[in-house]
């Protein structure tokens, strides 16, 4: 069967610069796909493009598709897209403040979703909003529904943000580094909560993260991005046990134990290429310990196992112990 969400050959340009260059990934209902990579690798831009949030004049999606149950989100009219946001596909942002209105109570904001999308009465919508706050484990939800965003701690506000995203029971949730602003203990709680909700509701979760601990904990699949491309993709356990791309191997290199939470990805010597001036050949070459003559050519993504892709000429050497 076709995956619930399938992104294919996505290209995004900001001005003359191509920041997402042919990205593809897939996720099924009830599954979590972790999207890994350094800042600037195009993880967030890909997510925003899928959500229909990359728009001229700032940026443009120039190619590719993002099919949700076969419907290409990228070709929908803006009005239709707006209808789908929340009901079918929703996003959790790095800081919930960007998704919340500071002058309205959080209960009101969640209730508004039920009023706008399901036509519920004011009273019924308010009741459902409290249920949502309960679901995301806000203590004393009925009372807290009347509070404003600034009255919540960072962690509680992020729960509210998750509540906003899941209120209408979307099929896909994209969470863009939803715990970056939080301390390690709260991070773990939020990730666990997202994972639980995702399993209970059969939602597909695309989780953009820097945190390898998250991958070990809740991801079914992993897509590793570098310089605007997916360089490796596959089942999380396999990628973790036997990376097939030097970049993935390097990212995992400094993680001594997968059970360690809150670990950042390894810092790899060198810098990603300037997206404004792509050099020919593999983009990881200047930082790669495996580079050989073939690497002057862009490596194609090749399937090296079921659902397992790598874009590296030397992948066999990388997987050889
Ligand atoms: Fe390194 Fe070559 Fe593989 Fe690129 S294609 S990651 S330069 S070995
Ligand atoms: Mg980002």
From TrEMBL:
Q: Where in the cell is it found?
A: Cell membrane
Name of protein = Oligopeptide transport system ATP-binding protein
Could you tell me which SUPFAM superfamilies the record lists for this protein?
A: P-loop containing nucleoside triphosphate hydrolases
Q: Which PANTHER family match?
A: DIPEPTIDE TRANSPORT ATP-BINDING PROTEIN DPPD (PTHR43297:SF2), OLIGOPEPTIDE TRANSPORT ATP-BINDING PROTEIN APPD (PTHR43297)
> How is this protein situated with respect to the membrane?
Peripheral membrane protein
What are the entry keywords?
A: ATP-binding, Cell membrane, Membrane, Nucleotide-binding, Transport
Q: Where is the signal peptide?
A: none
Question: Which processes are annotated in GO (biological process)?
Answer: peptide transport
The text of the family note is: Belongs to the ABC transporter superfamily.
Q: Name one GO molecular function term.
A: ATP hydrolysis activity
PROSITE patterns associated with the record: ABC_TRANSPORTER_1, ABC_TRANSPORTER_2
Q: Which NCBIfam families match?
A: oligo_HPY
Q: Which organism is it from?
A: Nonomuraea fuscirosea
Q: Does the keyword Transport apply?
A: yes
Where is the ABC transporter domain positioned along the sequence?
5-252
Could you tell me which InterPro entries the record lists for this protein? AAA+_ATPase, ABC_Ni/Peptide_Import, ABC_transporter-like_ATP-bd, ABC_transporter-like_CS, Oligopep_ABC_C, P-loop_NTPase
Q: In terms of domain of life, where is this protein from? A: Bacteria
> GO cellular component annotations, sorted alphabetically?
plasma membrane
* Cited Pfam families: ABC_tran (PF00005), oligo_HPY (PF08352)
């Amino acid at each position: 069967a076709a995956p619930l969400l399938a992104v294919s050959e996505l290209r995004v340009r900001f001005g003359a610069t191509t920041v997402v260059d042919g990205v593809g990934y897939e996720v099924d209902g009830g599954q979590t796909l972790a999207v890994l990579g350094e800042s600037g690798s195009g993880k967030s831009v890909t997510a925003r493009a899928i959500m229909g949030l990359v728009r001229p004049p700032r940026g443009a999606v120039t190619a590719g598709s993002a099919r949700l149950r076969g419907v290409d989100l990228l070709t929908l009219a803006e009005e239709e897209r707006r209808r789908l946001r929340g009901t079918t596909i929703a996003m959790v942002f790095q800081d919930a403040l960007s998704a919340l209105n500071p002058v309205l109570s959080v209960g009101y904001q969640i209730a508004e979703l039920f009023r706008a999308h399901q036509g519920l009465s004011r009273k019924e919508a308010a009741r459902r909003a409290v249920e949502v706050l309960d679901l995301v484990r806000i203590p004393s939800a009925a009372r807290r529904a009347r509070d404003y965003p600034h009255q919540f701690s960072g962690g509680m506000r992020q729960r509210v943000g998750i509540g906003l995203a899941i209120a209408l029971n979307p099929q896909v949730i994209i969470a863009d580094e939803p715990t970056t602003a939080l301390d390690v203990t709260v991070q773990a709680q939020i990730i666990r909560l997202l994972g639980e909700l995702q399993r209970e509701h059969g939602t597909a979760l695309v989780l953009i993260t820097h945190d390898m601990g998250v991958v070990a904990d809740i991801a079914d699949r992993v897509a590793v991005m570098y310089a605007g491309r997916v360089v490796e993709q596959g089942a999380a356990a396999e990628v973790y046990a036997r990376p097939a791309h030097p970049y993935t191997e390097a990212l995992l290199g400094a993680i001594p134990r997968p059970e360690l939470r809150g670990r950042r990805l390894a810092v790899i010597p060198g810098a990603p290429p300037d997206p404004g001036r792509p050099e020919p050949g593999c983009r990881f070459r200047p930082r790669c310990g495996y580079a050989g003559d073939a690497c002057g050519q862009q490596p194609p993504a090749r399937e090296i196992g079921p659902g397992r892709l790598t874009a590296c000429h030397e992948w066999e050497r990388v997987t050889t112990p």
